[in-house]
Amino acid sequence: MTAPETDLIIAGGGLAGATLALALARTVPELRVTVVETFPLSPDALPEDYQPSYDARSTALSWGSRLIFEELGLWPALSEHATPIRHIHVSDRGHFGATRLHAEDHHQQALGYVADNRWMGLCLMRALLDTGVQWQAPAEVMDMTPTPDGVEVLIRKDGQEQRVSGQCLVVADGGRSGLREQLGFVTRTENYGQNALIANVSTSDSHQFTAYERFTGDGPMALLPHGSPRRPENQSALVWTLTDEALAEVLELSDEQKCRRLQERFGWRLGRFTRIGQCSHYPLKLTTVDEAVRPGVALVGNAAHALHPVAGQGFNLALRGLMTLVEQFRRAVDEGRSIGELSVLGEYQRRHRRDWQQTVQFSDSLIRIFGQSLLPVATARDAGLVGLDLVPGAKRWFARKAMGIGSRKPVVPSVSTTAGEDSRHDQ
């Protein structure tokens, strides 16, 4: 019997794949981990000083995600360029309904954070340099074959193909690579008939660390505080939901015209829109996989579920799933079992399923409720928003959803003791 060349192969070294690799290095150091990434990666390419770009794309991190990164010892670095969300304002354009959440009401420093994707990637790469995680990049996982001892993965690198054996393959390369379908996983996709336009914008008034979720007749619109983590500035990250027709029309406008159109849809809560940066867009779909595991293979992140960005839950859900998988790998190693056993991966799926079902239902219901323009429905939802402000229990439930707080126990308790040491980053 030939010994496997590695224990775990991670297909994809983006935010999900890199976080999983770091969590395993911290929590299950006995495992040999190999990450296969299509983009070139080199320690020499990591800049010593990070200079944020105006057009940098960002991710909303819940308070629960902060706690996870604290467990991994990564938060002190991440927090250097993570803008806190201290207030959330939810409103229904043209109607009276609105609700407001404040971090201080929940005795927290913030409800969440907004961090540039590139900065998060740099922090992960720097942390991984000090681990035993192996990288193959640029390279791509082409196929996988089950074996009696686990899996054999076909990797293409520098135009050459090689086969690497291991106990398990984790697919973490998103929902567009095709590897998921190539391996035979069946997805369910529901097209919302909408697109997300992403850009950074500047306004005449400061955001005051407030995130705005504005529901309009054309779809939801979110503005998240962006820029300095220490002082409120005038830059926000925009997620603008548009139909195909409206998107095509907006893309034809000049920047000044885009700002005026945005002003019409959002209003004046942040003063005048003075600048809009480079715009990118993608179609919005709800994609789920009923069975995200099989012997020797597990899907994580967007490869397992892709959500509407309305509530900013996508990466936070993925992060919780990654830590659930790490917990099962830790247990399997302690019990002397292969991490690729179906019982191990099946337990990960069972534990994570309830979380993703509730999160999908939460996000999807917001789209359906606020997508209705009928007067009785509009009146009922506005009454609901007002009710959130008036009923403490309901508001607390909504806040916990937004903050991503659950009952998951820390995976790395020895690292989590650093949490109190970095509170200065939120001041």
UniProtKB/TrEMBL annotation:
Pathway: Cofactor biosynthesis; ubiquinone biosynthesis. The keyword Ion transport does not apply. Keywords: FAD, Flavoprotein, Monooxygenase, Oxidoreductase. Residues 5-362 form the FAD-binding domain. Its cofactor is FAD. GO terms for molecular function: 2-octaprenyl-6-methoxyphenol hydroxylase activity; FAD binding. GO terms for biological process: ubiquinone biosynthetic process. Pfam families: FAD_binding_3. Belongs to the UbiH/COQ6 family. NCBIfam families: PRK05732.1, Ubi-OHases. This is 2-octaprenyl-6-methoxyphenol hydroxylase.
